[in-house]
């Protein structure tokens, strides 16, 4: 899952300060008092946090579930592309091995057939890649919108004035941050708590299965994708 970029979020509070005017001297009527500003309910947020939204999307329970679903959906297409690629490579090797014995007409016919299959493979790959990237982007946008809402609640509840997204090192203004300021893991936990529907028990292993199925790895920063794109021929 080509990883969508999220804008840097800044969450802060503005405090309006009020003043009260009092009359001077006993003979002069007091001037109307300006209502005093309501004191803030708590301390003004001052902490700065750093979060990797891309990583959080890939590591939350719902993100993992969506990544697995994408992988399962595109596995048949990946297998189809591999078979097509193997067929083209087989025809090329066969042609190279027999080229000296073929007539000019046979050479022309075979090279034309190989070229046709190669172009078909390329078109199929590009179509599959575009379809995968769109499906991946849909997942990122859907979970990302909810993730930002959870982040805002978490920041307000924990006294953060600013939270910076470092998903893309090329655009992030953060050069260094203490480990204590990184809240990606906390955000994942907060998201899973508010979105329990994304958490599901692992599927039972088939009877007699000796191995353990592996899930495609996710890279924290984009653009790495939540699941591998079809292998380019």
How would you describe what is shown here?
This protein is mainly alpha-helical and 233 residues long. The chain has helices at 53-59, 61-98, 104-157, 184-194, and strands spanning 47-51, 160-165. Helix 1 (53-59) packs across helix 4 (184-194), helix 2 runs antiparallel to helix 3 (104-157) and helix 3 (104-157) crosses helix 4. The radius of gyration is 30 Å and the shape is elongated. The two termini are 20 Å apart.
Report the end-to-end length measured between terminal Cα atoms. Answer: 20 Å
Element pattern in H and E:
EHHHEH
Overall 3D shape = elongated
As laid out across the biggest beta sheet, the strand order is 1-2
What fraction strand? under 5%
- Average predicted confidence as pLDDT: 75
Q: Which structural class do the helices and strands define?
A: mainly alpha
Helix content range: 40-55%
Instruction: Please report the total strand number as a whole number.
Output: 2
The tally of helices reads 4
Low-pLDDT stretches: 1-37, 200-228
Evaluate the radius of gyration.
30 Å
Largest sheet, strands/sense/barrel = 2 strands, parallel
What's the quick description here?
It contains four helices and two strands; from the N terminus they run βαααβα. It has 233 residues and is mostly helical.
Topology:
Elements: E1 47-51, H1 53-59, H2 61-98, H3 104-157, E2 160-165, H4 184-194
Parallel strand pairs: 1-2
Helix pairs in contact: 1-2, 1-3, 1-4, 2-3, 3-4
Which terms summarize this structure?
233 residues, mainly alpha, two-stranded parallel sheet, 4 helices, 47% helix, 5% strand
């Amino acid at each position: 899952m080509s990883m969508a970029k999220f804008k840097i979020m800044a969450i802060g509070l503005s405090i309006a300060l009020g003043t009260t005017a009092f009359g001077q001297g006993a003979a002069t009527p007091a001037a109307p008092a300006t209502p005093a500003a309501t004191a803030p309910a708590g301390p003004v947020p001052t902490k700065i946090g750093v979060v990797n939204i891309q990583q959080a999307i890939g590591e939350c329970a719902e993100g993992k579930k969506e990544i697995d679903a994408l992988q399962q959906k595109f596995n048949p297409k990946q297998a189809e592309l591999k078979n097509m690629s193997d067929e083209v490579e087989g025809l090329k090797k066969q042609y190279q091995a027999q080229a000296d014995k073929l007539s000019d007409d046979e050479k022309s016919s075979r090279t034309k057939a190989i070229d046709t299959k190669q172009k078909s493979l390329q078109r199929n790959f590009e179509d599959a890649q575009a379809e995968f990237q769109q499906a991946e982007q849909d997942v990122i946008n859907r979970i990302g919108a909810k993730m930002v809402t959870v982040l805002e609640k978490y920041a307000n509840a924990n006294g953060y004035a600013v939270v910076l997204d470092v998903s893309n090192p090329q655009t992030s203004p953060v050069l260094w941050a203490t480990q204590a300021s990184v809240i990606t893991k906390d955000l994942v936990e907060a998201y899973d708590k508010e979105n329990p529907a994304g958490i599901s028990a692992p599927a039972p292993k088939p009877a007699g299965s000796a191995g353990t199925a592996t899930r495609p790895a996710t890279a924290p920063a984009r653009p790495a994708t939540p699941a591998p794109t079809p292998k380019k021929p």
